[in-house]
Specification:
Elements lengths: L40 E10 L3 H13 L5 E4 L15 E2 L14 H24 L11 E5 L2 H16 L5 E4 H8 L6 E5 L3 E2 L2 H10 L5 E4 L6 E4 L3 E5 L2 E10 L16 E10 L4 H5 L7 E5 L6 E4 L5 E8 L8 H18 L8 E11 L6 E6 L2 E5 L6 H15 L5 H7 L12 H13 L8
Parallel strand pairs: 1-2, 1-11, 2-8, 4-13, 11-18
Antiparallel strand pairs: 3-7, 4-6, 5-6, 9-10, 10-11, 12-15, 12-16, 13-14, 14-15, 17-18
Helix pairs in contact: 1-8, 2-8
The structure holds flavin-adenine dinucleotide.
Length: 448
């Protein structure tokens, strides 16, 4: 995730049907969980939801509420928690950050996005509380910080936007940030008290394990192909589902099933966790026991002090064909994580990293999100450009309502997402991707 909770343009990956997974992520910090069985045999249902990240989980829960007497099937190619929803940085945003100077003509757009975020955060908060999901929910907002010149300019921009939208905030100087975060690295920052920190793998596992009884979840069940008649037939390695309607919540992997090809791609991010800090080390981090920092530069580091006392830092993003990083590649990226960590917390230079992880996020070239009908009986939401925890939850619920024939302000807000820009094929793709990665980090300086 970036400080802007949204990425700049990037270009498209090749259309493979592999569903890569690994054990490097937040799930490693949790107790082992027994996954649900994979799909076998032939099933006929009114609804199938493909993809059990925040979007699919939210859609399935909503459909189950609309149709308490019907079976809703939810499938995922991997184990729950292995997609982006279980390996993100854990910021459930309410107030988005928009790069650049405040633009009065965009006020309606800012408000639209923030309404969607708000709806998603509210849904999540309710689900977590009603189902007693233990995901380290901590709702005290985030610190938007700047160390170098470009980010300092963004700090002024962000302040202008918060003022114009009458969103409460506190401006913090270096001393105040040092006192709160235990790092003298940042020259200025803004605390916005809205938004929640979560343990992402614990959240999605909790959401999956508390689904209503009429939702049947199948894990390790990749949908391989969709074919259409009056119904939709979804093929799996050892089975088939025939459904009246399909909700596609497969994020950047939608092109593998024939949707949004050349409009949606995967961007690979990576980060590291320290071991849990001891009491003395925690005390050196100032007065707070948990916080989340977002850089005001789009290429800057996202850093958290987690509830279990670890520093978690993410600061790489790259075009990698929509794939996770190998162990070797992660080890190489970890030198970048390490440098950023020691720059900010020299007093913790002796503290080793215990884990490194990567994750793939769905992005569009023009930073828009995807929502709506794809074919007669197929609906898709996804591609949240680095800010999908709250937004994906809202999009998932709204998509279920929409596919069910509903109408609401939330549906209208989601439908107003701008059309995605076309992404060129290879070799232009590779040139564009390299250029995009370079421009993302332009001027990042000390904020990386
Ligand atoms: C490292 C990282 C950090 C991030 N940090 C943040 C953050 O702090 N805050 C924030 O708001 N956002 C963040 N994001 C973005 C956020 O995680 C995503 O936008 C969000 O999780 C997307 O949710 P989703 O349900 O649409 O997709 P996913 O979580 O990607 O879920 C899609 C699911 O579909 C499944 N699937 C795909 N194809 C098939 C198929 N053919 N058959 C069956 N199943 C299939 C996948 O296995 C996957 O589980 C981050 C992303 C990454 C990678």
């Amino acid at each position: 995730m970036t400080s802007t909770m949204g990425y700049g343009p990037i270009f498209f990956s090749k259309n493979t049907k592999t569903y890569q997974s690994d054990q490097h992520g937040w799930a490693e910090l949790l107790p082992l969980r027994k996954s649900r069985p994979s799909l076998e045999g032939h099933i006929r249902v009114p609804w199938v939801v493909i993809g059990a990240g925040v979007t699919g989980l939210s859609a399935a829960r909503r459909l189950a509420g609309h149709h308490p007497k019907q079976k809703i099937v939810l499938v995922d190619a991997r184990e729950v928690g292995q997609g982006a929803s279980g390996r993100n940085s854990g910021y459930a945003v309410k107030v988005s950050q928009f790069p650049g100077a405040f633009a009065p003509e965009k006020v309606n757009e800012y408000r639209r996005i923030n309404r969607i975020n708000h709806a998603g955060l509210t849904l999540l908060r309710n689900d977590v509380s009603e189902n007693q999901i233990n995901c380290s929910w901590h709702e005290e907002g985030f610190y938007h910080v700047a160390a170098d010149e470009m980010a300092l300019r963004e700090c002024e921009n962000h302040q202008g936007y918060l003022e114009a939208l009458e969103i409460p905030y506190t401006l913090l100087d270096q001393g105040a940030l040092t006192e709160r975060l235990g790092s003298a690295h940042y020259r200025r920052g803004i605390h916005v008290p809205e938004g929640a920190l979560i343990q992402p793998a614990a959240l999605v596992r909790g959401l999956a394990d508390s689904l209503p009884e009429n939702v049947n979840l199948y894990e390790n069940s990749p949908a391989l192909d969709l074919s259409y008649n009056k119904t939709v037939s979804v093929q799996f390695p050892r089975g088939r589902i025939v459904a009246d309607k399909v909700i596609l919540a497969t994020n950047y992997e939608a092109p593998k099933l024939g949707f949004q090809n050349r409009y949606l791609i995967g961007s690979t991010l990576s980060g590291s966790f320290t071991r849990a800090l001891d009491e003395e080390e925690l005390t050196s981090l100032g007065s707070l026991r948990q916080w989340g920092v977002l850089s005001l530069h789009g290429g800057g580091a996202t850093i958290r002090l987690t509830q279990d006392g670890r520093i978690c830092l993410r600061n790489t993003a790259e075009y990698h064909g929509g794939n996770l990083l190998s162990d070797q590649q992660l080890a190489e990226r970890q030198t970048i994580h390490r440098a950023a960590f020691e720059r900010r917390f020299p007093q913790l230079a002796h503290v080793p990293f215990e884990y490194a992880w990567s994750g793939v996020e769905g992005i569009s070239r023009n930073g828009t999100n995807f929502f709506g009908r794809q074919r007669e009986n197929v609906f898709f939401a996804g591609g949240y450009n680095g800010s999908g925890v709250s937004r994906g939850t809202a999009f998932g619920a709204a998509l279920a309502d929409f596919a069910n024939g509903g109408q609401s302000e939330l549906i209208d807000d989601c439908l107003r997402s701008a059309p995605a820009s076309w992404i060129p094929p290879r070799p232009f793709l590779d040139i564009g991707a390299a250029y995009t990665v370079r421009s993302r980090f332009k001027g990042v300086g000390l904020d990386r």
